[in-house]
Amino acid sequence: MLATLLFSNISDRTSAAVEEPAFAPQTVRFGENFDGVTAPQLPAGWTVSTTGGGGAFTTVTTASDTAPNAVFAPNSLTAGLSELTSPPMVVTGANAVLNFRHQYSLENTWDGGVLEVKIGSGQFQDALLAGCVFLSNGYTRTINPSTNPLAGRSAWTGGSEGFVLTSVQLPASTFGQTVQFRWRLGTNDGFSALGWWIDTITLETIPTAANAAAIAIPTAGTAAPYPSSIQVSGLPGLVTGLAVNIENFSHNFPDDVDILLVAPNGRRIVLMSDAGGGTAANNLSLTFSDTAPSFLPDNGPLAAGIFKPTNYDDTDTFPAPAPQGAVSGTTLGAFYGTNPNGTWSLYVVDDNGSNAGAIAGGWSLDIQSSVSACLFTLSPTAQAFPVAGGSGGFQINIPAGCGWTASTTNSFITIDSPASGINSAAVSLTVAPNTGGARTGLVTVSDGINQRTFQAQQGSGCPTSLAQTNLNYAAAGGGGNVPVTAGAGCSWQAVSNAAWVVVTSAQQTGSGALLFNVLPNPSRSARSTSVTVGARTLNVNQAGATAARFDFDGDGRADISVFRNGTWYLQQSASGFAAAQFGISTDVLTPADFDGDGKTDIAVYRNGVWYVLQSSNAQFFAFQFGLAADVPVPADYDGDGRAELAVFRGGTWYLFNLANNQTSVLQFGLAGDKPVVGDYDGDGKADLALYRGGTWYLQRSALGFGAVQFGLATDRPVGGDFDGDGKADLAVYRGAGEWHILANFQNYSITQFGLATDTPVPADYDGDGKTDVAVFRSGVWYILQSTNAQPFAYQFGLAGDRPVPGN
């Protein structure tokens, strides 16, 4: 069993006074004066044994330090041992002192008594061998060689001339341990004396810090003061052991009392909550230690003693300024591994409004700290990262209960995992690409006392820059030439991350140029990849293959076609002549690839209704979207290979996606503007575009808004990709057949082709990826082929027909 008897003071000494040294104020954690029993009985938990001729320890009234009893063993005439063993007791402080008063009359140097200590699960050994230090009245002499079982050992021998105080400093290693003490009297054969009296035994601690001010507990609410605080300073290292002492606790209904302990760093636990039921407690000294044998009782009466932190209600709350949120743990181990220095706070609350109480003696802390207890290692301590950056990390190996923090001052290192914690853990991090010289970054890990560093090593990140970082290509592909800036000694080689981008430039040193080719995209889906140049990245985006405008048979070439009184007449370049009755003479022509099969579908717009004849299955559908006066502008605005239904109305664009049935409304332009839809940035998506009085206004899906002055108010804007770079060019038809073209927003040209009365019908009739200059005149098509710059004329249609490419 564990002894739990505590005394606040022990007095009534009846023997002759002996001058004794003074020590720092101490708190009694265990006490026994043997006066609670009737001689010759011993208190519960105390045991005796004898060997040989030794006489047993018993309580007697013949002499005592405090009346009426002391424990006594006679000095026998024959060789033997008399032993007195204490109950087990918990050491709750780092500065523990065993005090006892004793009187001895023993045959000098032949008979004698010793003190032995058992720590934890170890064996009993002499107090000095166990690391104890006598602060007063230690051993007097050595027992002579003889039949005495203690022969050769230092001991108390001879006469003490009355009761004297012996104080024994226990080693710091006993903090939190269970200890027992054993007094042994050894005798030899021959002469004898009176014997050994022992009385007034206490185990005391010198608290690390204390606040003796009383804490008043009201009938309901927070105590006064709230909190009660203790300032700790000067302790080295980190917390490795902790006990909390509550002095003179009184309350008529202890179940109402809740106590929260908060450390300087904010960690916190509930020391006591809803314990003790409704039986009044009066002036109890309570010590809380993780090594205590038991918890406070839930309903039974409280008694003085040493207990584990006890919480019977997890829903209890502590008003501000107590920190809010979940507690850090349920044991005092939650504080282990933290800095002990700073303000410790005790928050006391009465959660029911009927009974009051107090902690009249305040409270104190017994703190054990160590510089080396939380020593830790990192594994590995360094890691090499590629120039392009990447992820890595290391393991923190630290004793259980110890806390740590990780930090870095290097901006190119990002700690991805939690940057603090308790116990061993893995730290993950990311290193950014290196665009400069070789570098090393550090992650510093600290337990509050000790520091270790992890090195992130990264080679030179040359070259230093690319003139461009993003390029867009049409499905037809094309070449690329990107200037590269690099130091004179920097060697680099570009690497493509996809087979459809072919790097043609060789390895270079210093500044140079990245040369590559983008192959045609056979798929209808857009694609993206990158070219890596050291630590730099060039992103390459390519639009998916889309049907050529006005290509009704899907061979990649626009077809000559006219509309006459509701009939479509097609001269298909691959499939030959065809005619289809679809629409009425007043319909607006809206041909586009609505079903995504790579062929232009016959379609008309009439009074807000779209009528579409799908080429994929020859099925017809009609769909209401728009108003009679709207301008239909069908195109593939999202790059999915299917044209959307779209109308322009007074500066607002309305789009309907046939794939997901979603409607989009976009404000761009003014009433009276002319829509000139096209893919002006080459990302495979049609862009909103308007022509107003000689100015082009563009809302590009990849490059955003732009405005370009090109043309006159009387010009007719004509769309197309005249240079085959995958981007729509600015072009107008003026006067007597002048084509003014601004290719790629920078290459200006004028082509004379046509008459003032002609209808411009630009389209890619030869399938080379470039829009051909072309006009329709009285049933004859005049086309200037981009493949060979040769014109040709083709009779198809009648005067008055509406050429389909001209709509």
Structure description:
The chain has 807 residues and is an all-beta fold. The chain has five domains: 27-205, Jelly Rolls, CATH 2.60.120.200; 209-370, Sandwich (Jelly Rolls); 377-458, Immunoglobulins (Immunoglobulin-like); 465-542, Sandwich (Immunoglobulin-like); 585-709, Beta Barrel (Lipocalin), CATH 2.40.128. 0% of the residues lie in helices and 45% in strands. The protein has no helices and 71 strands. The strands form 16 sheets. Strands 1, 3, 4, 7, 10, 13 and 15 form a seven-stranded antiparallel beta sheet that branches. Strands 16, 17, 20, 23, 24, 27 and 28 form a seven-stranded mixed beta sheet that branches. Strands 2, 5, 6, 8, 9 and 14 form a six-stranded antiparallel beta sheet that branches. Strand 65 (738-743) and strand 66 form a beta hairpin. Residues 1-26 have low confidence and may be disordered.
Query: And the CATH topology of the largest domain?
Result: Jelly Rolls
How many individual helices?
Answer: 0
- Which CATH architecture of the largest domain is right? Sandwich
Overall mean pLDDT? 90
Given helix and strand content, the structural type is: mainly beta
Number of strands: 71
Largest sheet: 7 strands, antiparallel
- Please give the share of residues in helix: under 10%
Which residues sit in consecutive blocks of at least 5 with pLDDT less than 50?
1-26
Number of domains: 5
Instruction: Please write the CATH class name of the largest domain.
Output: Mainly Beta
Radius of gyration: 49 Å
Distance between the termini: 103 Å
Shape: elongated
Percent strand equals 35-45%
Q: What oligomeric state is this?
A: single chain
